[in-house]
Write a structure and sequence with these properties.
heterodimer; A: 294 residues; alpha/beta; seven-stranded mixed sheet; three-stranded antiparallel sheet; 12 strands; 17% strand; globular; B: 189 residues; Rossmann fold; six-stranded mixed sheet; 26% helix; 18% strand
């Protein structure tokens, strides 16, 4: 696998890429609608981003700079292996800086840095059907989308309120796209939901095992479902980042010893590192990377 | 088969089709914007943009309809040799290529099914000129409003009314392409 010329550009054969590209274009033309496609076996297991990888492979051009994140981090196993996969099979440049990337493949986060025109955000999606846990039959959910019959989803959110006093769904929070299709935004935290709508970048969603592709074109309306008396609220840990002091970024809680000590850090590693490089230091942050963290 | 049919395809299909698809994706995702697209030299009357779109998106699984003024031996042979796409009547087509007059009436084309709206045709409309002047476009992919020199507005308004069903359109001229998905609202100005 060290010889990249042994593979077609971006791994997939041309016939497969044409099939995926046609599905992407139909997805873009019908925002929020899940287009079936003939998902291929990829050299990684389902659940590791096979859908996202196929969408990325169909979109990449040799001039791209690719960024891959897993839960916001550039340096986790899933992100590193997908990044190396495309370095080897497509020969594209890679980057960790959100602003420098032209294509960003993501698992479960939208970067904190606002995206711009010319960027493509590719989501890895495990279950693309927002109604699947309410109605297991594909024949039924397809009919529900056809008839815009989304009452069941509102019942589910209502039951959340009656049981927990609030809408307890914290990730995978459904959105309604352009007043038509209810869409699963992949398991991003609901903190990220407000960035789905009106985004300047093209957002593409690939579900490999479930064989679906869907899309949000730029500047498309995506409204999180809610009730007048229980409006949607993006939530995060009530804390600021212990490393970069960011008050407004999505945080991971990290246990630091056996006594239950913990710290909150930005889930977006590039955002956190660039803030620290710009001189923002949190209570547990060290001035330079590599220095001891107290 | 005409000998010229063998010429004018991609010389480096994986990379050229990737660049062409990116232009096609940006065009469809941002209706009303014009994108350069090239990499092939199709026979006249096919424009570079229309030829490259056919090479990038069509293959043996996508029935293609050629409008009367494009249904020439040289075009049929070129498309067949380079893509293998079956050439069919309008109602069976997944892709269609021709001038606007060729493709009229557009209600012959597949608009998808209520439960599978993706099974709809994509029209490649060859234009004498393509500019950012003309009917006003709003909808997904457009921040405020865009303008595009459409051949007419009534057919696209009727198509928008079918949403989520409806056909999607590429407008091509020379080596430029613009997209008009079914989701776009079109208003005459």
């Amino acid at each position: 696998m060290t010889d990249q010329t042994a593979y077609n550009f971006a791994y997939l054969d041309e016939q497969t890429k044409r099939m995926i590209r046609r599905a992407i274009l139909k997805g873009v033309a019908i925002p929020g609608y899940q287009v079936p496609f003939a998902s291929r076996e990829m050299p990684m297991p389902y659940g590791w981003g096979t859908g996202g990888v196929q969408v990325t492979a169909a979109c990449l051009v040799p001039e791209d700079r690719l960024k891959v994140i897993d839960q916001g981090a550039d340096d986790t196993t899933n992100a590193v292996s997908i990044r190396r996969f495309f370095q080897r099979t497509a020969g594209v440049e890679v980057t960790e800086a959100t602003a420098d990337a032209t294509v960003i493949q993501t698992r479960h986060r939208i970067p904190e840095t606002p995206l711009t025109e010319g960027q493509i955000l590719v989501y890895q999606v495990p279950i693309p059907e927002p109604l699947r846990f309410l109605e297991p039959r594909e024949t039924e959910t397809r009919k529900m989308h056809e008839l815009e019959d989304y009452g069941l989803m509102h019942v589910k959110l209502y039951e959340d309120i009656s049981r927990h006093g609030q809408i307890a769904t914290a990730y995978d929070y459904p959105v309604k796209v352009e007043g038509r299709y209810v869409m699963d935004p992949s398991p991003i935290p609901k903190f990220d939901n407000p960035k789905l709508g009106g985004n300047a970048a093209i957002q593409l969603f690939g579900a490999g095992r479930e064989q679906r592709i869907y899309a949000l074109p730029p500047y498309t309306q995506a409204i999180s479902l809610d009730f007048d008396d229980y409006p949607f609220a993006a939530s995060k840990a009530d804390h600021s980042c212990d490393l970069c002091a960011a008050p407004d970024s999505y945080l991971d809680e990290v246990i630091t010893d056996d006594q239950g000590s913990r710290m909150f850090v930005c889930s977006d590693t590039d955002f956190c590192a660039s803030r620290r490089a710009a001189g923002h230091i949190g209570p547990m942050g060290a001035p330079r990377a590599g220095a001891d963290v107290e | 088969m005409t000998p010229d049919a063998l010429l004018g395809g991609f010389t480096d299909a994986p990379r050229q089709s990737a660049r062409a698809f990116r232009a096609a994706l940006e065009a469809m995702a941002r209706p009303g914007t014009l994108w350069p697209i090239d990499g092939a030299a199709p026979p006249a009357p096919l424009s570079v943009a229309a030829g490259v779109l056919i090479l990038t998106l069509c293959d043996g699984t996508t029935p293609l309809h050629l409008g009367p003024s494009y249904d020439l031996p040289v075009v049929r042979d070129w498309v067949t040799f380079h893509t293998g796409a079956p050439l069919v009547a309008a109602k069976d087509a997944q892709f269609a290529c021709g001038t606007w007059a060729d493709l009229m009436p557009v209600d012959r084309f597949a608009i998808g099914l209520p439960d599978y709206p993706d099974r709809a045709a994509t029209l490649i409309v060859e234009m004498p000129a393509l500019t950012n002047q003309g009917p006003r476009l709003t909808g997904p992919g457009i921040a405020t409003a865009a303008h595009l020199s459409l051949p007419e507005t009534a057919a696209f308004r009727a198509n928008r009314a079918l949403f989520p069903q409806g056909f999607d359109t590429y407008l091509t001229c020379g080596a430029q392409v613009a997209g008009l998905p079914r989701s776009t609202n079109v208003e005459a100005v």
